[in-house]
Amino acid sequence: MALFKVAVLEGDGIGPEVVSSALRVLKKIGELSGVDFVFEKALIGGSAIDQKGTPLPQETVELCLNAHAVLLGAVGGPKWDGLPTDKRPERGLLGIRKALDLYANLRPAKVYEPLIKASPLKEEVVRGTDFIVVRELTGDVYYGEPRGIFYENGKRVGINTMKYTEDEIRRVVRKAFEVARLRRKKLTSVDKSNVLEVSGLWKEVVEEVAREYPDVELEHLYVDNCAMQIVRRPSSFDVIVTGNIFGDILSDEAAVITGSLGMLPSASLGDKYALYEPVHGSAPDIAGKGIANPIATILSAGMMLRYSFGLTKESDILERAIELVLERGYRTPDIYSEGCKRVSTEEMTELIIRTLEELWQ
Ligand code: NAD
Ligand code: IPM
Ligand code: MN
């Protein structure tokens, strides 16, 4: 029997709630398909600060380095908002991405027909939207030096550095071309090369890599224009590749046009390791209420089945099961619309598990 070791980092806020749902679903898939998943938990984020005094304890890194894949909930919350930037829960997340060299973050934005009314956009604009943002995840202003708050002539100045090496750009752009090749073969590269030198280099490298992929159609958009086109013509995009900070912003925008942030999964891939997490955060406003949408995390587990374990059939059935539960009108509050049946995190998880069993025959 195949055995896969999954490092589980629940994190804070709704993190433990949605991760618990995804683990129950994975366990069921294990039973149905005869695959053995072993889950080992470790601390990250605010809960790690509280218990270990650091957002990313060394044993957490070790566990991830020795697992076949990592499943993460979300980190952060008001309790830790007063801490300096370098001591915050979010540093744990940035640290694990860097430690595992997870340079390509895949964030699919797909509109589910039954959820079309939950989208803030008009039905006719959003219908058929199915694209994926490939966000660079280990460079850019997130990690560039110098950074900090300094004094100049007695006044404070805040500094962050937007920096990319050509190799960092090349590897993520290649990944994006590969993803496009498996889809509708259209790639949009997003930059701000009308203003930023680092974006000028980004565009140059994209052009160089494009010569290896003559079968993929390439367009370049400035990030401000892209933000606008995502709400104007979302269904025209197939794969979008961009840097870390632009990708952070554009992927939240992409998430909400599909109905809710609670629906959007992600895979963070390097050459050796992979981490799966929902795009949303720890949602402190609804934590502990049992109403968080677990679908983004369950779909992230689905991406793990597909990308890390090669369990394509299992991942397909899981996605179909989720679609079916939505078609049958069940909704957590964040995606609720009139005439639907409102369910809790727990009930949504149960429904997905039962539908999986139903589809497995
Ligand atoms: P957020 O994504 O946590 O929440 C934004 C809004 O979306 C909230 O109204 C929330 O209730 C709602 N929402 C998010 N996920 C949901 C779900 N699964 N079901 C239903 N509703 C959901 O973003 P925020 O409020 O800007 O950040 C809160 C904290 O999370 C901050 O500390 C932030 O740094 C952190 N954060 C962490 C991650 C991560 O761990 N990957 C990502 C984003 C934000
Ligand atoms: C995300 C989050 C993180 C990011 C934060 C919490 C560090 O917003 O995963 O999108 O900016 O990458
Ligand atoms: Mn974000």
Please provide a written account of the structure.
With 361 residues, the protein is of the alpha/beta class. It has two domains: 208 residues, Isopropylmalate Dehydrogenase (3-Layer(aba) Sandwich), CATH 3.40.718.10; 139 residues, Isopropylmalate Dehydrogenase, CATH 3.40.718.10. A hairpin with a 4-residue loop joins strand 11 and strand 12. Helix 6 crosses helix 7 and helix 8 runs parallel beside helix 9. The model has no long low-confidence stretch (mean pLDDT 96).
CATH architecture of the largest domain: 3-Layer(aba) Sandwich
Class derived from helix and strand content: alpha/beta
Q: What is the strand arrangement across the widest sheet?
A: 2-1-3-12-11-4-5-10-8-9
The total of beta strands comes to 14
Number of helices: 12
Main sheet characteristics: 10 strands, mixed
Backbone shape: globular
Bound molecules: nicotinamide-adenine-dinucleotide, 3-isopropylmalic acid, manganese (II) ion
CATH class group of the largest domain: Alpha Beta
